[in-house]
Amino acid sequence: MAQACPLLFRQVDGTVARLNALSVSFLVIVFLYTFNVIWLYLLGLDFAIRLYGHKPYSPIYQLSMLTQKILKLPEKMTDAGAKRLAAMFGLFFIFLLTVTAHLQLPSFAFVVAGIFLTCTSLELAFSYCIGCKVYWIIKKIYPAFMEN
Known about the structure:
Structural class: mainly alpha
Mean pLDDT: 89
Radius of gyration: 15 Å
Shape: globular
Number of strands: 2
Order of helices and strands: EHHHEHHH
Low-confidence stretches: none
Largest sheet: 2 strands, antiparallel
Distance between the termini: 19 Å
Strand content: under 5%
């Protein structure tokens, strides 16, 4: 099987996705600084809106669209499947961070946040999707993964 991202054959703006990664990274860093779970609840809600609700209602998405417009950043279209999978992983990381916060496990929270921030930083800086690599590994182990 060739290494590939999950394809939805629908395009989204990769520039907006990178700006989303910037906002998510910032809010995770704010959580690590304050250790206040409200930031994680807000992030979790935003991820849920983008994944399962109506994306234009997402505050981070709106902020990213506004930033792109103000800075006149170019559109760079990419397949939506990879970004959807990355959002699923993001929601999972937010869940793990919330659990570690409630269990008062700051060391574990820093490890989880470090991995999450590495993933978002790679997306932000290089448009490199770790989710695509993980997807390929999961498909090798479980071929029916994400099939409808």
